[in-house]
């Protein structure tokens, strides 16, 4: 690789110290490198990164921050189809595999082509009110449908491929990818899935029934979640959240249709830490 682009979370890289180290190292080895800061939300269709600023011919995007920064960058730049690699400046992450101690060896591997590219499936969620589309977005980790407002449970009516599945009261519902299975879904009792798999995981958040568990669906299915009526048939307010960031408001009767996206995120792997090793460290096993 010869042409790099850095997306930096300047809240985590104070004074752009690590950014400067990477830029200097790459340029000293005859590579091109440009930088874009991603700590403030943008106006317009993108969230933190403007993909139009990334030069044509860029071969690798280096994301400095953590898993959250990588999620934000992935959603913004996915249609550029440039592989990403994360440099973790915080706690051990599942997405950002390189830490500060292994920074230069990782850059050497990138420059000499010693890496693999993993395709990570994404989700598209589209919110409807009757026949009117209210909004749509994509997610690499998960789409969460939950309440908006007072702390009370919401009624959810769930369908798969337009066939009724079930209804229950809960704090929310998580539809996650395998990449997102180690995030919010896991903390809500969902299964851990290898990130290279292709499937969707539906996990309730604090359901008010004992027989509701996570369900795994094949990637070609379409999951629909409808906001049901509240107590005494009052209108409920909800939110569809994409990777814990962008949101689309919903009310009783609104529905969100979730399916596999037509785009995917390309993640560079250097075998510094594979998924099993990261999982073992996260779970505290020796």
TrEMBL record:
<keyword id="KW-0067">ATP-binding</keyword>
<dbReference type="GO" id="GO:0003951">
    <property type="term" value="F:NAD+ kinase activity"/>
</dbReference>
<dbReference type="InterPro" id="IPR017437">
    <property type="entry name" value="ATP-NAD_kinase_PpnK-typ_C"/>
</dbReference>
<feature type="binding site">
    <location>
        <begin position="182"/>
        <end position="187"/>
    </location>
    <ligand>
        <name>NAD(+)</name>
    </ligand>
</feature>
<dbReference type="InterPro" id="IPR017438">
    <property type="entry name" value="ATP-NAD_kinase_N"/>
</dbReference>
<keyword id="KW-0521">NADP</keyword>
<dbReference type="GO" id="GO:0051287">
    <property type="term" value="F:NAD binding"/>
</dbReference>
<feature type="binding site">
    <location>
        <position position="206"/>
    </location>
    <ligand>
        <name>NAD(+)</name>
    </ligand>
</feature>
<dbReference type="GO" id="GO:0046872">
    <property type="term" value="F:metal ion binding"/>
</dbReference>
<dbReference type="GO" id="GO:0019674">
    <property type="term" value="P:NAD+ metabolic process"/>
</dbReference>
<dbReference type="GO" id="GO:0005524">
    <property type="term" value="F:ATP binding"/>
</dbReference>
<keyword id="KW-0547">Nucleotide-binding</keyword>
<dbReference type="Pfam" id="PF01513">
    <property type="entry name" value="NAD_kinase"/>
</dbReference>
<feature type="binding site">
    <location>
        <position position="152"/>
    </location>
    <ligand>
        <name>NAD(+)</name>
    </ligand>
</feature>
<dbReference type="GO" id="GO:0006741">
    <property type="term" value="P:NADP+ biosynthetic process"/>
</dbReference>
<dbReference type="Pfam" id="PF20143">
    <property type="entry name" value="NAD_kinase_C"/>
</dbReference>
<feature type="binding site">
    <location>
        <begin position="141"/>
        <end position="142"/>
    </location>
    <ligand>
        <name>NAD(+)</name>
    </ligand>
</feature>
<keyword id="KW-0808">Transferase</keyword>
<keyword id="KW-0963">Cytoplasm</keyword>
<protein>
    <recommendedName>
        <fullName>NAD kinase</fullName>
        <ecNumber>2.7.1.23</ecNumber>
    </recommendedName>
</protein>
<comment type="function">
    <text>Involved in the regulation of the intracellular balance of NAD and NADP, and is a key enzyme in the biosynthesis of NADP. Catalyzes specifically the phosphorylation on 2'-hydroxyl of the adenosine moiety of NAD to yield NADP.</text>
</comment>
<dbReference type="InterPro" id="IPR002504">
    <property type="entry name" value="NADK"/>
</dbReference>
<feature type="binding site">
    <location>
        <begin position="67"/>
        <end position="68"/>
    </location>
    <ligand>
        <name>NAD(+)</name>
    </ligand>
</feature>
<feature type="binding site">
    <location>
        <position position="171"/>
    </location>
    <ligand>
        <name>NAD(+)</name>
    </ligand>
</feature>
<dbReference type="InterPro" id="IPR016064">
    <property type="entry name" value="NAD/diacylglycerol_kinase_sf"/>
</dbReference>
<feature type="active site" description="Proton acceptor">
    <location>
        <position position="67"/>
    </location>
</feature>
<comment type="similarity">
    <text>Belongs to the NAD kinase family.</text>
</comment>
<dbReference type="GO" id="GO:0005737">
    <property type="term" value="C:cytoplasm"/>
</dbReference>
<keyword id="KW-0418">Kinase</keyword>
<keyword id="KW-0520">NAD</keyword>
């Amino acid at each position: 690789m010869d042409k790099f682009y850095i997306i930096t979370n300047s809240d985590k890289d104070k004074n752009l110290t690590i950014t400067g180290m990477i830029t200097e190292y790459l340029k000293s080895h005859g590579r091109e490198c440009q930088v874009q800061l991603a700590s403030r939300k943008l106006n317009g269709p993108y969230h933190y990164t403007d993909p139009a600023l990334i030069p044509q011919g860029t071969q690798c995007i280096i994301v400095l921050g953590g898993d959250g920064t990588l999620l934000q960058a992935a959603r913004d730049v996915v249609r550029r189809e440039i592989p990403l690699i994360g440099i973790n400046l915080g706690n051990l992450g599942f997405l950002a595999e390189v830490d500060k101690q292994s920074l230069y060896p990782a850059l050497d591997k990138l420059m000499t082509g010693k890496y693999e590219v993993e395709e990570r499936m994404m989700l598209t969620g589209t919110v409807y009110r009757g026949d009117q589309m209210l909004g749509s977005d994509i997610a690499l980790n998960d789409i969460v449908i939950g309440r908006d407002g007072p702390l009370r449970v919401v009624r959810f009516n769930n369908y798969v491929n337009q066939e009724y599945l079930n209804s229950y009261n809960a704090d929310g519902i998580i539809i996650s990818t395998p990449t997102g299975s180690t995030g919010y879904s896991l903390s809500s009792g969902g299964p851990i899935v290898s990130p290279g798999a292709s499937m969707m995981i539906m996990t309730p958040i604090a359901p008010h029934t004992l027989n509701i568990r996570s369900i795994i669906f094949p990637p070609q299915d379409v999951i629909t979640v409808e906001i049901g009526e509240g107590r005494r048939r009052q209108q409920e307010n909800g939110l569809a959240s994409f990777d814990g960031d962008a949101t689309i408001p919903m009310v009783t009767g609104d529905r969100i249709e979730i399916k596999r996206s037509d785009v995917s995120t390309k993640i560079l792997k250097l075998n510094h830490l594979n998924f099993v090793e990261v999982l073992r460290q996260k779970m505290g096993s020796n």
